[in-house]
Write a structure and sequence with these properties.
CATH class of the largest domain in chain A: Alpha Beta
Shape of chain B: globular
Strand content of chain A: 25-35%
Largest sheet of chain B: 3 strands, antiparallel
Structural class of chain A: alpha/beta
Strand content of chain B: 5-15%
Oligomer: heterodimer
Number of strands of chain A: 7
Distance between the termini of chain A: 44 Å
Strand order of the largest sheet of chain A: 1-2-5-4-3
Structural class of chain B: alpha+beta
CATH architecture of the largest domain in chain B: Orthogonal Bundle
Shape of chain A: globular
Radius of gyration of chain A: 17 Å
Chain lengths: 162, 399
């Protein structure tokens, strides 16, 4: 199992862990995230399936950036969560996994989480002037007034351009 | 917007900017590609997506688990039934519910029909884009039959919403199985005709061989799944690798290519259609009467006659509609083998009526993100072939 490997080679790196319905989840601090990624890559987790995020506004570290890995040889799956506060950047994985490029742009677009070292960090699904970040919990479901580009008084945006 | 808009330097330089899309016949859906050309060679391709972004994940956070099913229809709308199946499997994993055997069999049956339908669109349209019109017509007759079957089963041809959490909306009607049996024979013949038109066609070879070739390592690094990954030589199919719905009990093969080019992707898809026909044959042989939804009224609605006659069922009905299911707190990721790759659903539940976060992992997003690398140094005509073979479905790409 790769989790034992991580424990043995990088002691103390796993801040929290849980298993639910057969899904293994590890929580890793963002400073040590790249060490874990390199170890995973060596251990055969070469398929980065998905990158996404979850917003928990009441927590001090507001966002969980969620990565899903797959080991093609053993068909093992692993989920790694990296908690970050608003405005904090997560190390980009584009240099290791090309597939991270658009996924990270999407997370940046919809949650406003910056990725450090991303070569082209621009919005992916919404347009450049889009006010706010759509998947944050405090973004209104009806989008407020998305066509209002300047002088917008919607509460999520406080009149600033995003 | 600096990479999209024409800068002074780009206007003055040798490069020509060609805009493909957002509504161009080969984009199938709405996406835009800005091509920078030197002569007729593509130097850079910048895809711009999001024209079909409807905020499906955001909407899911304010809908109950059952209410999200119709939204899954609109992801990959060429094989909407497989999205229904993939989503309900994810919720069932969260609930830890085992569905009845007949429901499993029918889900496999309709999923494989949807897979054939999706591959027909992909292969047929790819051929049309390149200039081979007739293959499309032979196959679309079969696609009509598939939609007739869906209409019989779900009452809808395109937006099926056929599955329910814990089973199916209803049983397949009388007349479904005979039509499916006839379809097996007709479709086999139509695939033979398609292969006679294309597989040994020298023009088809010239247009597709070596175009969009990708190595297995690159394909994995780019996050390829589905036929595009298998065409590159990686035998990864979730139906075999991580079986669900009892796929491990069926006898079928995984076709694998070698070079990953458009021709190999075509061959893999054609062979997958034949393998799907084999699976459908086995399902039809195994079908026997039985319940099609779980007998747990905390998950699935009780039958109408019980609701009208028994107090307890009426209460269950009311509780389910008004308060939803009792969801455990937790998170699951469930993946199924969609027609164009791994279709994943990541659901975070906080125990409420609605999912706290619902994430769709679209198969074609990582594949399409490699478009620039795929067409660099090719001609515009090759870009058209590559785009078709990637099977980019904008509804799923943008969500």
């Amino acid at each position: 199992m790769v989790i034992e490997q991580i424990d043995a080679q990088l002691p103390g790196v796993i801040a929290d862990r849980h298993a639910f319905r057969g899904d293994q989840t590890l929580v890793v601090a963002k400073d040590r995230f790249l060490e874990v990624v390199d170890l995973l890559h060596r251990e055969g987790f070469q398929f980065l399936v998905d990158v996404t995020a979850v917003d928990w506004p009441e927590r001090s570290q507001r966002f969980d950036v969620v990565y899903h890995w797959l080991n093609l040889a053993s068909q093992e799956r692993l989920r790694i969560k990296v908690p970050v506060a608003e405005g904090e950047a997560v190390p980009s994985l584009v240099s290791r996994f090309k597939t991270a490029d658009w996924y990270e742009r999407e997370v940046f677009d919809l949650f406003g989480i910056p990725f450090e070292g991303h070569p082209n960090l621009k919005r992916l699904l919404t347009w450049e002037d889009f006010p706010g970040h759509a998947l944050r919990k405090d973004f209104p479901l009806d989008g407020g007034d998305p066509f209002c580009m300047e002088g917008c008084t919607a509460p999520y945006n406080r009149g600033e351009r995003a | 917007m600096d990479s999209i808009a024409l800068t002074k330097q780009q206007l003055d330089g040798d490069r020509m900017i060609v805009n493909m899309g957002p509504s161009h016949p080969v984009t199938h859906g709405t996406l835009r590609i800005v091509l920078e050309l030197e002569g007729e060679t593509i130097v850079r391709a910048t895809p711009e997506i999001g024209y079909l972004h409807r905020g499906v994940e955001k909407l899911g956070e304010s809908l109950s688990y059952q209410q999200f099913i119709p939204l899954t229809d609109r992801l990959n709308y060429t094989s909407s039934l497989m999205n229904n199946v993939g989503y309900t499997l994810a919720v069932e994993k969260l609930l830890d519910v085992k569905i009845p055997r007949r429901a499993e069999l029918i889900r496999v049956l309709v999923s494989e029909l949807a897979r054939i339908g999706d591959h027909i669109v992909c292969v047929g349209i790819n051929a049309v884009d390149i200039g081979a019109f007739s293959a499309f017509l032979y196959l679309f007759k079969q696609r009509e039959t598939i939609y007739d079957l869906f209409e019989m089963a779900a009452g809808q041809r395109l937006h099926t919403s056929f599955t329910r959490i814990g089973g199916l909306m209803r049983d397949i009607p009388e007349g479904f199985v005979p039509l499916a049996e006839r379809f097996l024979v007709d479709c086999e013949a139509a695939i033979d005709e398609l292969e006679r038109l294309l597989t040994r066609n020298p023009i088809w070879h010239d247009r597709t061989k070596g175009v969009g070739a990708i190595s297995a390592e690159d394909a994995i690094n780019w996050g390829y799944t589905g036929p595009c990954l298998r065409a590159a030589g990686v035998p990864q199919d979730l139906r075999k690798a991580q079986p669900y719905l009892g796929y491990e009990t069926y006898d079928f093969d995984i076709p694998v290519g070698t070079t990953g080019d458009v021709f190999d992707r075509y061959l893999v898809r054609v062979e997958e259609m034949r393998q799907s026909l084999r699976i459908i044959r086995q399902v039809l042989d195994r079908l026997e009467p039985g319940p099609i939804i779980v007998d747990d009224y905390k998950v699935a609605l009780p039958p109408k006659e019980k609701v009208y006659t028994r107090m307890e069922s009426l209460i269950h009905h009311f509780k389910l509609i008004m308060h939803g299911m009792e969801m455990p707190v937790g998170e699951v990721y469930s993946a199924t083998e969609g027609a164009n790759g791994e279709l994943g659903f990541y659901i975070v539940s906080d125990g409420g009526k609605n999912p706290y976060r619902i994430r769709v992992r679209p198969p074609c997003l990582p594949i399409f993100s490699s478009f620039d690398a795929q067409v660099n140094g090719c001609l515009i005509a090759d870009a058209v072939a590559v785009l078709g073979a990637m099977n980019v479905i904008a509804g799923e790409l943008d969500r």
